[in-house]
Amino acid sequence: WKNRRLRALAKQLAPRSIALPFVGHAYRFLGDDEDRMEMFKRIGREALEKSGLLSHWQGNRLFILVADPEAAEILLKSCLDKDDVTKFFRVLLGNGSIFAPVSIWRPRRKLLAPTFSQKNLNSFVEVFSRQSRIMVDQLRSAAGKGTFSVWKYLTAYTMDSVCETTLGIKMNVQQKPEQPFLKAFENCCRLDAKRICQPWLYNDKIYKFFCPANFELHSHSKEIIWSFMDKIIASKREYLRKEKLESNSSQKCKQDLKTFLELLIESPGGYGSVELREETLVIVLAGTDTSAVGTAFTTVMLAKYPDVQEKVYNELQEVFGDSDRPETPEDLPRLKYLEAVIKETLRLYPPVPFIVRQVKKDVTVRLTLVEGCGLFISIWSIHRNPRYWGDDAELFRPERFLDTPLSHPAAFMPFSHGPRSCLGYQYAMMSMKAALSALLRRYRVLPVEENNKMSEAETGSREAKNKSSEAKNRSSELRVKFDVMMKDVNDFEIQLDLRI
Ligand code: HEM
C-alpha cells in the first residue's frame, strides 16, 4: 500500500526521462563530477518548469526535488530527519549533529548554539584578521606572475581560522600545507560524493567487493582523522585541567577567548570523548570547505566584474583609508556592499547546492508528499527561480541585496532554512568578509589570461554598450562540479596585481 502511494506520487511529478529497473533515474548521474552537477542543474530546471516539484527515482527510493521556496519552507520545518543517503557521512561523523537522527541532534544543537553568540563571534575577528594577513602575505609570491589557483590559499586560511577558533590549536596549514589530516578529509569527501550518486554501490558488501581500493582508502582516511581529533581533544583536556589547577593556586587570570572545544568540554552535563570528537569534526568539516568555496567563488566573480570590484574597493577605502590596520568587529558590519557581493555569489553559486531530508510523516505542499520519500531541496534552483528573483535571476547583480527585501524568506538560503539550518551562518559571513577585505585592500583581482584580454576589450567598449548586452555578459556561467561541496571546474583560477 505504501509503495502504491509512492508510485502514484512519482507519477504525478514525473520527469521527462524514464526510470530504469533497479537504478531508477540514477543512470543520469554517470560521468564525472561536472556531469553530475550538470545533471542536478538540468533536473532543477525541469522542476522549475513544473511549478517547483519533480520526482526522481534513486535506485528503488523515491525522491522529490524541490525548487520552490514556499514548499521548501514548509518541508524544512516539518521534515527534520536527514535521508538515509547521508549514512556514508555518518561513517566518519558518527552521531555528529549535522547528520544525526532528530533525537540526538536536538539536545546537541541546544548545547552548541550559544557557542555562536555574537560575543564569541566578535572575539574571533582578531583570529580571522591575523590569519587573513598571513594568507595575503603568502599570496605575494603569486602576485604579478600570471594565472594561478587561489583555492589552496583560501582553504588553508579557513582551516587555520576554524581550528584556532573552534579547537584552540594553531595548525599552521598556511605555512605547512602537507598535513595527512587534510588529505584524509579530502579523500572522504570525494569518495562519499561519488557513492551518493551510485545507488548500486550503497550496500557496504557490494561496495567493498567492487571497489576494494576506495573502501580501503575511506577506512584508512577515517582512522587518520579520528586519531588526529582524539589527540587534540586529549591534549586540550589536559591543558584545561592544568589551567584549572594553576588558577586555583595563583588566582591567575584566565584567557578571554574560549574555543568551541573548551566550551563543549566545560558545558554543564559535559560531552564524552566520542561525542566531543563527533561535534568538533562536524564544525571543522562544516566550517572549512564551505567558507573557502564561498570566498573562492566571490574572488572569481570579482575578477570577472571589475566594476563591482572597484565599488568594493571604494567601500574599503571609506572604512580603512590607506591604513594597513587589521579588521575589527566594528568594521565588518560597515562593509555592506561587500556583503551584498558575497550574498549574490552565494545565490548563484551556493557551496552546498542541495540539502537532503526524509519525509517521516505525510506532509502537504500543494499535494501530499508521502511518508518514506526522500527530499532533495535544490538550493541551486530556488536561487534561480524567476518567480522570486525576476527575469534577471541568472544575472550577477549584487545591488539586488541592497535595493529590495527578499520576496520570500526562503528564496535565499545558502545556509538552509528552518530549525536545522546552518549554525555557523554569521561566523561564515564574518570570516569571508575579513578574508576578502584583507585580500582586496592589498591586491587587484584579475581574470585568467585569455579571458583577461577579452575582458579588457569589453571594458573599453563598455560605456558604449547598452544595458541588455551588459546583462548578457553577466549571465555567463562558471563551470561547476559536485564534490560534496559545489566547486569551480577550473579550480578557482585568477591573477593578482599588487595595489600598494
Ligand atoms: C559559506 C559557508 C557555509 C555554508 C554555505 C553553510 C551551509 C550549511 C548548510 C546548507 C547546512 C545544512 C543545513 C540543513 O540540513 O538544513 C549547514 C549546517 C551546519 N553548518 Fe554550515 N555552512 C557554512 C559555514 C559554516 C561554518 C563556518 C560553520 C562553523 C564554524 C558551520 C557549522 C554548521 C553546523 C554545526 C551545521 C549543522 C546544523 C544542525 O544540523 O543543527 N557552517 N551549513
From TrEMBL:
- Its Gene Ontology molecular function terms? heme binding; iron ion binding; monooxygenase activity; oxidoreductase activity, acting on paired donors, with incorporation or reduction of molecular oxygen
- On the tree of life, the source organism's domain of life is Eukaryota
What subcellular locations does the record give?
Endoplasmic reticulum membrane; Microsome membrane
Q: Which InterPro entries match?
A: Cyt_P450 (IPR001128), Cyt_P450_CS (IPR017972), Cyt_P450_E_grp-I (IPR002401), Cyt_P450_sf (IPR036396), Cytochrome_P450_Monoox (IPR050196)
Please list the residues that bind heme. 422
**UniProt cross-references to Pfam families, sorted A to Z:** p450
What keywords tag this UniProt record?
Answer: Endoplasmic reticulum, Heme, Iron, Membrane, Metal-binding, Microsome, Monooxygenase, Oxidoreductase, Signal
What cofactors does the UniProt entry give for this protein?
heme
Q: How the protein sits in the membrane?
A: Peripheral membrane protein
Give the transmembrane ranges: none
Give an example GO cellular component term for this record.
endoplasmic reticulum membrane
Q: What does this protein do?
A: May be involved in the metabolism of insect hormones and in the breakdown of synthetic insecticides.
Q: Which family does it belong to?
A: Belongs to the cytochrome P450 family.
**Name of the protein in its database record:** Cytochrome P450
